[in-house]
Amino acid sequence: MGAILWLGLWVIRQIPGSYEEIATWDADLEQTADASREEGPVPGFYWSTGSLFLNSGGPFLQWNGTRNAFHQWACRYAAMDFGHSLVDGLPVKEKFRRALPWSMALQLPAIVLLLLLSVWLALEAVMRSGSWTMAMADRALTGLYAVPGFWLATLLLLIFANPECIQVLPTGMQGAPSANPYRLWWVAPKYFLLPLLCLVLPSLAYLQRLVRNGLLEHLEKPHWKRALSTGLPLRKALLVEALPAALPPLVTWMAGVLPALVSGSVIIEQIFSIPGLGRLLYQSIAVRDWPMVQFLFFLGSAFTVLGFMVSDLLLRWMDPRLKQTV
Amino acid sequence: MDGPEVKANGVNAYSLLRKQRAGLFLSLHLLMGLAVLAIWITGSKPLLCKYQGEWHVPALHDQARSGTRLAFDLVATADSDYRNLTFDLAVWPLFGRDPHVLKPEASWLRPLEKDPSGNIYWLGSYELGRDLFAACIYGLRRSALLGLLAMGIAGVFGGIVGSFAAFQSHRHGRISWMSAAAVGAMLWVVLAEGLHLTQSKNVSWAGLARMVAVVLSLAWLAVKTWDRRPKIHFSLDRLSLAYVEIMKSIPGLLLLLLLVQMVPDAGTVDIALMVAFLYSPVVIKYSRSFATRRLPEPHIDALQALGASPARIYFRHLLPRIWPDLIPVLAFGVAQVVLLEASLSFLGLGLDLDTVSLGTIMHAARSNPAAWWAIVFPGALLFWLVYSLNALGDWFSQSRSLSHRGGGLKTR
Questions:
Q1: pLDDT grade for B385, boundaries at 50, 70 and 90
Q2: Count of CB atoms within 10 A of residue B65's CB?
Q3: Residue A131: count of CB within 10 angstroms of its CB
Q4: Rounded Cα distance, B393 and B380, in Å
Q5: Which of chain B's residues have a Cβ under 8 Å away from the Cβ of A58?
Q6: Which domain holds residue A62?
Q7: What is the per-residue pLDDT across B264-316, written as a single tens digit (0 to 9) for each?
Q8: pTM to 2 decimals?
Q9: Residues A139 and A287 both lie in one domain
Q10: Which of B168, B183, B332, B401 is most buried (CB neighbours < 10 A)?
């Protein structure tokens, strides 16, 4: 975790001009400009290295003590002080708090819908394998998997939100009747219809295959015959006997999308101008608002790690065999 | 699409694909043909010409790099002027349209519409009067190049690292302490000095040569002392797994967005390198698992009993078997990379906006929502490319009865 955060900090400091921008901002705020001028720029980490072979101008190994950017940054974050945005001076926390509901209101329904749809489609695919409707559905899903999300979004906008074509849906969140996304779901869910579609459709094929392959694998096992011989109807037998065995890959996938809850989806939110975290991230990078970017990066990686931990625990609980091998 | 009993291996896979999936075979060849032959199909510069007694290849000449202009490039100040030069001999592309030629008076023409001087635009034009047909073909070329380059780098690096880690752990993961120290020092020199190399402004050739010499001698030391007696436990497997774990915990798209900001004018190669860096753990993971699956096979033991050296077993008998296994991973990877680059460029954060790629065309179309053609055609081409690559990966993994799909960077 530490390595990731250091990498994030390091990358941001590598971006041309970023150091000066952060430093001047700090100087304006806290009047540390004098100290900075006397001692030179704050080094990045506890030690800095020179080069053995190239003329880097410094000693080979230099100990910087606690006067380094990583230490200061870690201390500030540990004290829950995430800094201020370089653009409007608002606290980073505040901007995050404003954008979070929009991402949540979009991502949570998308994930739930994805899970339900993929399980349902996988069950249908197994039950009606061989029928031409399922073959068609399979083709369609494979096609959808290859559709670029941003292209789908723009096409849908061209078709359904175009004065020259069919204008039934709004192009974005401008003019939405409510500034509260949860209320908006209640008042005018049509604002969420297209973004939701664009999030769900491209990933559906992948998930459906995960579940379907899990189910098919299970149907070859001897205990499936036992389940059928007890006289359970096919659908019920699939739900009760086979589905639990097909779920672990879904849990792993869930771990992967958990960070999307706090980082939103950059592309979809940008296209539909939803003021969520993805759009915030895009704008922060575009206007070089480094404290904001740093915080979003920190949060994203924290939730990725958290997601893996949770899914590991869940998997161990779901599949006791995993406990024996560790 | 037959069952798992089909063995797609080496050269056979090619004719198998033609027999089993003729459509896919054709579509892949068409795409590759368009990408490779783009400069033959359309462009404003001659492919090969003789100008004032000298031979030139202007079409391979990058517009962006004005520093390396040829003699007649100075004469032809605009790219559209080449038609007016008198060449001794010239081979021209099939069509004269070039997406780099700007004609602001012919901006945003609809498909099949004519510009004021009567030239017809098949797929229309977009921003600054760039021809969409030519732009789509050049964009496809750019996407394919970037995808293949990135996955080529990631594939070679990841394939070797992953399978070697598995091989070393199969041999009990113990090496001499001297070897371990040499490997550690080598990693240090490559990483730390490489960092200085990217940052320092005055790089001396002598220093660089010394660095290369040190790395090479450390490598030689590591190989030579590999089996010396006082051994310690030093598992490259653990090391590579740690790398994979760390990289997995980074939100890929986010890091890529930041990495792109690091390089002021990111070109194709820069972006390919960044994507390769981000994609390498996926390849390492797969090649490691393929190698661990192959290693218990009896012929490896037989070779060992026959007295083959570890290097021989690894390079002659293990590594060549890893590449065919990796092909589906790489095919899915190329599709993902192409999508990723298009998404980034679409947002305006990827390739430089003057570079013609499928993503940048659609980025330009965002400023004119009425121009459906500048969204539909490049997007359809992108979809076709990604779909074909995914189908190839699917077919390959099914015919080798391996199942893996996705597991890469998320483009959401």
A1: very high
A2: 8
A3: 12
A4: 20
A5: none
A6: 2-78
A7: 777 788 888 889 998 899 999 999 999 998 888 888 889 989 988 888 898 99
A8: 0.82
A9: yes
A10: B332
